[in-house]
Design the sequence.
């Protein structure tokens, strides 16, 4: 393997790796390359001159600069391993991966947008351009499998019908047909064309003849057509008649009907979007159509050679004139105009986010800011008056990737004549669409939101007076630029050092004094890692908690009049199964995900319909009647009234899914037995046989579902008061699996009930903790139960002490925030300096949060909450009252008298 050294020319680093455009294209086409790597490369492709820093690129196209940096680096490593012929090395001999996809990189001066700038390799740039064309074709084929060209609602077959009807017609007849279609701006163009057809047909025919003369450059013909149409459509009594029917769109429609294998239809909006997709600036008016025809040529070449595409669309257009050029145009039209979300990750890059200034009060008085942030949502109510309906219409246009700005609007100045908008919280919409519900005359709209910034920032001036309603679209550059700047501030995240430690060691325990906000911090760490509620779980250990609660165990169940036991997963095993599914799905192709999602949806729809309608079924042999009565995560329960011994029978969903995904032909229950390699036929096989064949018939009628690539997520499991449980009893053999060095299948162990785990269980062959699972425990240093954490468990976790100063930001929402922080600091200093107590007994900010409940009454907080706790700490020691007095003076900022002499704390024992 060749070792390629980096060439350093001043502040620019570069090297030649000898990878051709063709090789890059094959790498991009290969489904084995993770989609996130391709998306990262394409983001750089879209940057001006295909260069930029991670910060500038993410400011423009969204995303996390650190993630972009990581994906580019991992992409370089992937390509290097895939090609297996070179290795880029730094002067110190260590590998350098980012220079594989990048031609060069350089440090940026201070004050720049970012600190380091990349430039994409020219060969890769050309490959991406061609890959984008191929990606469009694949997106189109996926769409056309569900929505054919001649679909009743989204019918585009009229274009083929039009060019077919125009074959052999004279120019005037062609124009007469074109003028009544939506290929032209019918409202404006049709009257003009109707006028010249009736009043100046010879002049029009001559103009069309010149337009269709292929010996003349297309730009020149378009220019001449525009000038001619202005003349022949001119009438004394209508000074607007000659303004229309002279545009490139009209000319393209006419040319397409004359020769559909040389020309195709055009619209500026579509052309502009294609230019944006290819990162090419559009031409000026009069030269756009010819440029569009140049841009469509590479796509035409792909279309001409794609037999699968032709077979797919043939049933819809088999009776019309064939035109691959029109098919190429249809690809662009459908993806960029009709169904842009079909573009997948390209959609978020080409359709920029919108910014929404929104309110966070209900009924004008109840602030929902904290709740919105905690729950990761934004919602609002709109009434049925005209203004409410206008705002509701705006709220419904919010889409995934848009930015939510929680703000307040007011006026400043002595005369209250300076409008101001104050930003409190910023977040990115993560739901694909809003959830809408109606109650009486009001409508509620809600979206999931990932909030990434909280603070306070004012923008003053007359232009900010418009942001006063529940929702207003924000187009102000100053606000948008400010939002972009704070989004790049992620390296200074609050909990970055804890996240780094957790990602390295997989397991973390937060220790500290009671009330320091360890549980609050654990949840905040998970959210800062990108976890939603679905990727987090929370349990609290206690002396009665055991293996059956945590991992798995037998639970009593009632089957008709009989009682028995059933194996049930504990909370941790269920959580790991969910994380494992995400981990596996992130490795799958779109095609695989689409098939699996379709299968699961079809199965679930069938089960729900069968239960809701109490559908009866009959076995094929005995004709026994049975019905589906219960739907669980992994099983279906059927009831067989004629079976006195076993009326309720459980069927494995995994069996159905396996049969459906492999499209197995089943003619009897015996085929089920043979497919699953069972020694004997079971009662379940008979019921699966009947249900599977019914489901299979229904599945043939249902279209495939839209899916997106699955991004691997981080899953955080929080164990509160981890030291209060009997660790050995709770974890059992999982001590081995949770070890950071044995994550994934390397740490597979047989659980205590492994021999009775059912087929279809994610851990049928042994349990392990997936690589994307992280564990955070919390514990109080002063608890007597600390000793329960034996050394075997301790060495599997990293330990971090959390002090009140680490979590004092919890108090930021208090109206008396500064006084609360100062009081806490004074008291804790006194506690820390007291012999026999120390930092383990300091008072955390959780106690001071009660100020928000008692109206900021510090005296009440001391008497009701803090003093009783401190007396409990001092139980059994001499001079308790003197020490409490010392703490009280520190708390209330009172000075001790000079002659005061408080004895040190002494244990009576």
Sequence:
């Amino acid at each position: 393997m060749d070792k390629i050294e980096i060439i350093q020319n001043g502040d620019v680093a570069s090297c030649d790796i000898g990878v051709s455009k063709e090789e890059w294209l094959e790498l991009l086409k290969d489904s084995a390359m993770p989609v996130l790597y391709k998306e990262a490369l394409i983001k750089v492709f879209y940057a001006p001159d295909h260069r930029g820093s991670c910060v500038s690129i993410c400011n423009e196209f969204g995303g996390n600069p650190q993630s972009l940096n990581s994906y580019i680096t991992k992409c370089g490593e992937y390509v290097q391993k895939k090609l297996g012929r070179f290795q880029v090395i730094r002067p110190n001999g260590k590998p350098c991966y980012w220079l594989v996809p990048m031609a060069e990189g350089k440090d940026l001066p201070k004050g720049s947008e970012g600190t380091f700038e990349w430039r994409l390799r020219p060969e890769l740039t050309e490959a991406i351009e061609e890959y984008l064309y191929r990606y469009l074709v694949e997106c189109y084929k996926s769409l056309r499998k569900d929505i054919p060209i001649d679909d009743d609602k989204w019918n585009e077959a009229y274009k083929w019908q039009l060019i077919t009807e125009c074959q052999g017609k004279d120019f005037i007849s062609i124009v007469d047909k074109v003028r009544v279609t939506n290929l032209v701006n019918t409202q404006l163009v049709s009257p003009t064309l109707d006028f010249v057809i009736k009043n100046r047909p010879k002049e029009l025919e001559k103009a069309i003849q010149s337009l269709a003369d292929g010996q003349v450059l297309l730009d020149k013909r378009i220019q001449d057509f525009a000038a001619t149409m202005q003349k022949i459509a001119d009438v004394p009594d209508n000074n607007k008649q000659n303004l229309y029917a002279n545009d490139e769109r009209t000319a393209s429609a006419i040319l397409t009907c004359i020769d559909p294998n040389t020309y195709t239809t055009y619209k500026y909006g579509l052309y502009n979007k294609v230019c944006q997709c290819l990162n090419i600036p559009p031409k000026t008016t009069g030269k756009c159509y010819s440029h569009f025809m140049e841009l469509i040529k590479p796509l035409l070449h792909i279309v001409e050679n794609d037999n699968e595409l032709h077979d797919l669309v043939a049933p819809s257009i088999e009776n019309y004139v064939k035109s691959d050029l029109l098919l190429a145009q249809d690809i662009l039209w459908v993806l960029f105009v009709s169904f842009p979300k079909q573009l997948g990750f390209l959609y978020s890059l080409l359709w920029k986010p919108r910014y929404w200034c929104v309110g966070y009060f209900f009924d004008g008085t109840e602030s929902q800011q904290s709740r919105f942030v905690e729950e990761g949502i934004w919602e609002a109510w709109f009434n049925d008056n005209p203004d409410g309906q206008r705002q509701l219409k705006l709220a419904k246009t919010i889409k995934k990737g848009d930015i939510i700005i929680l703000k307040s609007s007011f006026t400043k100045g002595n005369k209250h004549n300076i409008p101001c908008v104050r930003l409190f919280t910023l977040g990115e919409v993560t739901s694909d669409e809003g959830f809408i519900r109606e109650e009486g005359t009001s409508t509620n709209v809600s979206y999931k939101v990932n909030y990434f910034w909280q603070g306070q920032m004012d923008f003053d001036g007359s232009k900010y007076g418009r942001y006063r309603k529940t929702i207003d679209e924000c187009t102000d550059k100053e606000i948008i630029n400010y939002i972009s700047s704070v989004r790049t501030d992620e390296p200074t995240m609050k909990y970055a050092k804890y996240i780094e430690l957790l990602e390295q060691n997989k397991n973390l325990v937060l220790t500290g004094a009671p009330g320091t906000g360890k549980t609050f911090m654990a949840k905040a760490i998970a959210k800062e890692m990108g976890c939603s509620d679905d990727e987090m779980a929370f349990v609290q250990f206690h002396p009665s908690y055991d293996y059956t609660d945590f991992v798995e165990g037998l639970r009593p169940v009632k089957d008709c009049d009989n009682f028995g036991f059933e194996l049930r997963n504990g909370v941790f095993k269920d959580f790991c199964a969910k994380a494992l599914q995400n981990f596996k799905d992130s490795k799958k192709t779109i095609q695989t995900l689409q098939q699996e999602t379709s299968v699961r949806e079809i199965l679930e729809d069938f089960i729900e319909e069968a239960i809701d309608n109490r559908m009866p079924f009959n076995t094929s042999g005995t004709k026994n009647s049975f019905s589906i009565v219960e739907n669980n995560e992994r099983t279906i329960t059927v009831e067989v009234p004629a079976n006195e011994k076993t009326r309720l029978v459980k069927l494995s969903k995994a069996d159905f899914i396996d049969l459906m995904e492999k499209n197995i032909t089943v003619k009897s229950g015996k085929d089920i037995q043979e497919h699953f390699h069972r020694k004997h036929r079971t009662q379940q096989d008979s019921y699966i046989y009947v249900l599977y064949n019914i489901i299979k018939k229904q599945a043939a009628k249902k279209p495939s579902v839209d899916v997106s690539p699955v991004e691997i997520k981080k899953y955080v499991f929080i164990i509160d008061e981890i030291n209060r449980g009997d660790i050995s009893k709770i974890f059992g053999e999982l001590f081995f699996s949770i070890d950071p060095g044995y994550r994934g299948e390397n740490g597979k162990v047989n659980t205590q009930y492994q021999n009775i785990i059912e087929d279809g269980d994610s851990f049928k062959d042994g349990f392990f903790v997936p690589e994307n699972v992280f564990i955070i425990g919390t514990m109080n240093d002063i608890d007597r139960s600390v000793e329960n954490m034996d050394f075997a468990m301790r060495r599997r976790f990293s330990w971090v002490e959390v002090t009140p100063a680490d979590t004092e930001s919890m108090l930021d929402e208090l109206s008396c925030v500064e006084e609360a922080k100062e009081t806490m600091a004074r008291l804790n200093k006194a506690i820390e300096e007291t012999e026999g107590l120390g930092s383990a007994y300091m008072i955390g900010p959780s106690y001071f949060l009660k100020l928000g409940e008692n109206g900021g009454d510090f005296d009440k907080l001391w008497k009701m909450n803090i003093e009783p706790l401190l007396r409990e700490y001092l139980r059994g020691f001499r001079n308790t009252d003197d020490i409490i007095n010392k703490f009280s003076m520190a708390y209330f900022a009172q000075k001790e008298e000079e002659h005061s002499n408080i004895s040190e704390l002494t244990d009576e024992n």
